[in-house]
Amino acid sequence: MRWNVLLVAVCFLANFLLATKAQKCVVPESQFQGFDITQYARKWFEVKRIPNEAEKYFKCEFDEYSKTPQGVKVVGRAYNTSTNSYETLEGVIAATTTNTFTIKNPGEGIWSNTYTVLGTDYATYSVVTGCLDTIDKLLVWIAADGPELSPAAEQTVKKILEIYNLDWSDFESVSWTNCPEPPSNK
Ligand SMILES: *[C@@H]1O[C@H](CO)[C@@H](O)[C@H](O)[C@H]1NC(C)=O
After folding, report:
1. CA 134–ligand 1 middle distance (angstroms)
2. Could you tell me if residue 24 is inside a domain?
3. Collapsing DSSP states into helix, strand and coil, what is residue 104?
4. 184 C-alpha to ligand 1 centroid (Å)
5. CB–CB of 28/140 below 8 Å?
6. CB within 6 Å of ligand 1 — which residues?
7. Structural domain total, the chain
8. Residue 93 maps to which CATH number?
9. Which atom of ligand 1 approaches the CA of 80 most closely?
10. Distance from C-alpha of 148 to C-alpha of 72, rounded to nearest angstrom
């Protein structure tokens, strides 16, 4: 009898540990609706992010979404301050929903992913979230049409973050000082 109790307790504990591990990064249900990738196609400067290992050395980070006859492509660049060179990632938008988009970067692991849009005005700000395979916590990126959010955009972004209980102070600013000239797109 006592062994049964112990077995149940062990199973319960194991389930609990598995569940908490699996639930470390959970993308919130976005209230944003009607995401339009063609309107979104522009150069987005990353201005704030939740600090994370994958972007640890990155400054001067931006993504250029552009319309092509084959669909929307995306070229991401970031200056790696550890190697003093730009990292480049080229991909395509493989799918979208009313508030998500999926990027496929051929031959690349972690950034080929589905991202959830928490808000954008397609012009001055964008708030995107997602979970990366190698990182347990929820990541959020705030992008703008230049190296800084305008005061109006910052107010709007803060209101969006509040909906999801995301704290402004959990974000780090992406440095845009002394950015070397990035390579040009093919
Ligand atoms: C940046 O450079 C460092 C040092 O070479 C390297 O370990 C790291 O992987 C690079 N960052 C990325 C994400 O490519």
Report:
1. 15
2. no
3. strand
4. 21
5. no
6. 54, 57, 80, 82-83, 87
7. 1
8. 2.40.128.20
9. 1
10. 25
